[in-house]
Amino acid sequence: MSNHALQQATASDGQTSSDADSTAAVRLADVTHEYGANGGRGHSGGDRTVTALRDVSLAVQAGDIVGLEGPSGSGKSTILHAVTGLLVPTDGAVELLGTDLTALSNRKRTRLRRRHVGIVFQRFHLLSSLSARANVALPLVQAGIPRSKRRERAESLLEQVGLGDRINHLPGELSGGERQRVAIARALVTDPDVIVADEPTGELDTATGKEVLELLTDIGRDRAVLVASHDDATLAVADHVIGLRDGRVVTDGG
Questions:
Q1: Average pLDDT, integer, range 104-110
Q2: CA distance 254 to 246
Q3: What integer is the mean pLDDT of 168-173?
Q4: What one-character DSSP code corresponds to residue 46?
Q5: What's the CATH class of domain 3-252?
Q6: How far from chain centre, in Å, is Cα 120?
Q7: Domain residue spans in the chain?
Q8: How far apart are alpha carbons 69 and 249 in whole angstroms?
């Protein structure tokens, strides 16, 4: 683990090592995660295990963009899954807005994620049968927001990402860059405190990818943003980049 990452880890008395770290929107402290040979968690009846993360510590403040760099299998996606509460690590703590996700039930983790985390996927994950507006509004349906307010919020965000004239278009009628903008608007619709993006420009050409990165930079001004990528241009927008290899932090450019 790098010196910078060590400074951000939990101190021996159980308190964070700095005031900044204690107020981080996202914090991982000594996180290890092992997958069993059958795809489950490790420590299960002597199954062979694969270590996806080993003693990873990091913190992301509101207003910061942190990049995760590394080849496939380095642990980038596992970190994102831990931050969003989609998996519980084998060991260590994962805090979101001061709440330890590892201590919550699956229902409570899901509730926290829906309220406070926006997710941007590489392949957009838009529903092909729904318009751009309906795709953006979908998280608000799950939150029980009235239809009129859902439409208003979705249309406002689509205007902000430059798609005000495409609100009724289906994903198949949009370019790759437009679909990613819809996905970003959807990630913002609940006004989350944290944005996680997994290879957000991986499906885009260089020019379109640049536009999407400018948009991510803009929305990161008052949110904590965690971006996983192997693309240098994508990582260049980060305030600092954490390099991962074989589940370990090998560089931290903070």
A1: 95
A2: 20
A3: 98
A4: T
A5: alpha beta
A6: 7
A7: 3-252
A8: 10
